[in-house]
Amino acid sequence: MPMSSERRDSAGWSGEASEVVRKDAFATPLRLVAGFDVGFEDHGRVARAAAVLVDAATLQPVASGVARLPAPMHDVPGLSGFRELPVLLAVLEQLPQRPDLAFVNGDGIAHPRRFGIASRFGVAAALPSIGVVDHPLAGSGIIPHQTRGAYTALRDGREQIGWLLRSRVDNPPLAVSPGHRVALASAADLAMRFVANDRLPEPIRLAGELAAGRS
């Protein structure tokens, strides 16, 4: 699949938080979105990424892929992006079309370095991205009330770095943060737009199912 000329070399390139674009810079209307999920096999020695391309209007899957690569380093808390980036770029190559927006099971700017895997991947692939996780590595906030779609600010000190999103009533909120080319103000609404019957946005749910071999 042809890649953007802005895409960086995946062999060890790490990027910096200063390269993250914190404003909306994605195609409208959204036509195709994708979910990405990374896991590890063989006692952490093999990184596995799953990607599912979804029609933005119907939420129906269009294409999918699974990639496996040797994990480049041992797992270090807060530095998982170094292990996950190469395999994420590899599975992106398997999709027949680039998504207009990527949802990544991982942190975006809600990260101690403001550069979680959703940001790292977005910058490396020149792709608008949003990070969605159960528990962010940085920040805290008031728990949103029990209304589907309610969200509250996720802050690290005085800086807002994301949102706590109640995607499903009686379920814990998700932590949603911009990865790259998505404004903070847009991230929670975009994530909620693609939530169907599950707690997770449908692209990430489908990618997780594929990664676990359940689809």
In short:
By secondary structure, the chain is α+β, with helices and mostly antiparallel strands. It has 4 helices and 8 strands; from the N terminus they run βββαβαββββαα.
What is the overall number of helices? 4
CATH homology-level superfamily: archaeoglobus fulgidus dsm 4304 superfamily
Stretches where pLDDT falls below 50 for ≥5 residues?
A: 1-13
Integer average pLDDT: 89
Helix content: 10-25%
Largest sheet: 8 strands, mixed
**SSE series:** EEEHEHEEEEHH
Counting DSSP E segments of at least 2 residues, the number of strands comes to 8
Assembly state of the chains shown: single chain
CATH topology descriptor = archaeoglobus fulgidus dsm 4304 fold
Strand order of the largest sheet: 3-2-1-4-5-8-7-6
Q: Separation of termini?
A: 24 Å
The tally of structural domains comes to 1
What is the C-level CATH assignment?
Answer: Alpha Beta
Radius of gyration, in angstroms, nearest whole number: 16 Å
What percentage of amino acids are in beta strands? 25-35%
